[in-house]
């Protein structure tokens, strides 16, 4: 009888599976916690929960292993965490980073963990599981760029013409008008869904951007992911990866998605904090090598999906440090993307907004989306601006003599009207069909 009971008990026990495994915090140093007891269950990127002495549950992520211990960083503060605190890993659900995205996210403002920030109640958690670190579409089988995309900004539609699925970088120093240009793009661009990532944003500017720049109509077709500058580096990093995952969800539904990310530089700064805290050596200007390995993995996920899917047209802002457009992040991003728009502080100081330096801006898709007449107009306008730029200092000094060069005289005559063409108010609507007609009038080129 006893043997039967023992065998029965053994059968029952062998059929049980733990719902979680538990370890403890060994030590805390800087932004990292060392976890012991879970090494054989964990891998890079897994998420576990640490219980602080106050009872607060703190989500953390494995960023490395050292001396046989798992190195983790928290998505919140480390107050109340010390040696001996319990760390546990759920086994009943996947521990990798993912969001449960649904159509109900449209019109909502979220944090990088998918939690509502707009005070409008919780979100539908029964949506599609979307991995935060999915691979880009296969380069040999993904679709090609689509038709011309009208962005609603004259300077860009005429001189940095963009196609659906293209990826552009907006390069500028602080205070040159990146956020204002983004608000013009999200209102004027033709798309089904807009996904906006505010990475390391100033806290006071979030409501201003949502209420004043985006507005109720823009918000209704948008998903906004916010991580303010005071949030831990994992949150700032995942503001970018979460926004990309949301954009991929709508892309897979066949929709045309506009992804606006402000800024890639702050994403790289968050990666730098994570890498240095995990013990990675600094390299280029303090950035560890992993930053420049992760950057293309993120940026390449934008663009066309597979045939039959939608496309992600992406605009990434790059905050150039000290107005140095050749600093490491700017240089790396420029080499990955399909074009760049340069915002110049000197142009903004002259009162011309958006402060786009047309001569330094480039779209690599222009040959495939402009007619011969339109390309000729853009080329002539660039030539006019280049000739004027060459004599601008001489004009200010009064050293240029009219009649010396007929082509330069023409550039001086046309430049005021061209400057007016490039100037556009923040809430000034622009119709796509009018852009090149307006440029014809400015240049007096009736043949085009």
UniProtKB/TrEMBL annotation:
<dbReference type="InterPro" id="IPR005714">
    <property type="entry name" value="ATPase_T3SS_FliI/YscN"/>
</dbReference>
<keyword id="KW-0547">Nucleotide-binding</keyword>
<dbReference type="InterPro" id="IPR027417">
    <property type="entry name" value="P-loop_NTPase"/>
</dbReference>
<dbReference type="GO" id="GO:0030257">
    <property type="term" value="C:type III protein secretion system complex"/>
</dbReference>
<dbReference type="InterPro" id="IPR000194">
    <property type="entry name" value="ATPase_F1/V1/A1_a/bsu_nucl-bd"/>
</dbReference>
<feature type="domain" description="AAA+ ATPase">
    <location>
        <begin position="164"/>
        <end position="348"/>
    </location>
</feature>
<keyword id="KW-1278">Translocase</keyword>
<keyword id="KW-0969">Cilium</keyword>
<keyword id="KW-0375">Hydrogen ion transport</keyword>
<dbReference type="GO" id="GO:0005524">
    <property type="term" value="F:ATP binding"/>
</dbReference>
<keyword id="KW-0653">Protein transport</keyword>
<dbReference type="Pfam" id="PF18269">
    <property type="entry name" value="T3SS_ATPase_C"/>
</dbReference>
<keyword id="KW-1006">Bacterial flagellum protein export</keyword>
<comment type="similarity">
    <text>Belongs to the ATPase alpha/beta chains family.</text>
</comment>
<dbReference type="InterPro" id="IPR020003">
    <property type="entry name" value="ATPase_a/bsu_AS"/>
</dbReference>
<dbReference type="GO" id="GO:0008564">
    <property type="term" value="F:protein-exporting ATPase activity"/>
</dbReference>
<dbReference type="GO" id="GO:0046933">
    <property type="term" value="F:proton-transporting ATP synthase activity, rotational mechanism"/>
</dbReference>
<dbReference type="InterPro" id="IPR022426">
    <property type="entry name" value="FliI_clade3"/>
</dbReference>
<keyword id="KW-0963">Cytoplasm</keyword>
<dbReference type="GO" id="GO:0016887">
    <property type="term" value="F:ATP hydrolysis activity"/>
</dbReference>
<dbReference type="InterPro" id="IPR050053">
    <property type="entry name" value="ATPase_alpha/beta_chains"/>
</dbReference>
<dbReference type="GO" id="GO:0044781">
    <property type="term" value="P:bacterial-type flagellum organization"/>
</dbReference>
<keyword id="KW-0406">Ion transport</keyword>
<keyword id="KW-0813">Transport</keyword>
<comment type="function">
    <text>Probable catalytic subunit of a protein translocase for flagellum-specific export, or a proton translocase involved in local circuits at the flagellum.</text>
</comment>
<dbReference type="GO" id="GO:0009288">
    <property type="term" value="C:bacterial-type flagellum"/>
</dbReference>
<keyword id="KW-1005">Bacterial flagellum biogenesis</keyword>
<dbReference type="GO" id="GO:0030254">
    <property type="term" value="P:protein secretion by the type III secretion system"/>
</dbReference>
<keyword id="KW-0966">Cell projection</keyword>
<feature type="region of interest" description="Disordered">
    <location>
        <begin position="120"/>
        <end position="139"/>
    </location>
</feature>
<keyword id="KW-0066">ATP synthesis</keyword>
<keyword id="KW-0067">ATP-binding</keyword>
<dbReference type="GO" id="GO:0005737">
    <property type="term" value="C:cytoplasm"/>
</dbReference>
<dbReference type="InterPro" id="IPR040627">
    <property type="entry name" value="T3SS_ATPase_C"/>
</dbReference>
<dbReference type="Pfam" id="PF00006">
    <property type="entry name" value="ATP-synt_ab"/>
</dbReference>
<protein>
    <recommendedName>
        <fullName>Flagellum-specific ATP synthase</fullName>
        <ecNumber>7.1.2.2</ecNumber>
    </recommendedName>
</protein>
<keyword id="KW-0282">Flagellum</keyword>
<dbReference type="InterPro" id="IPR003593">
    <property type="entry name" value="AAA+_ATPase"/>
</dbReference>
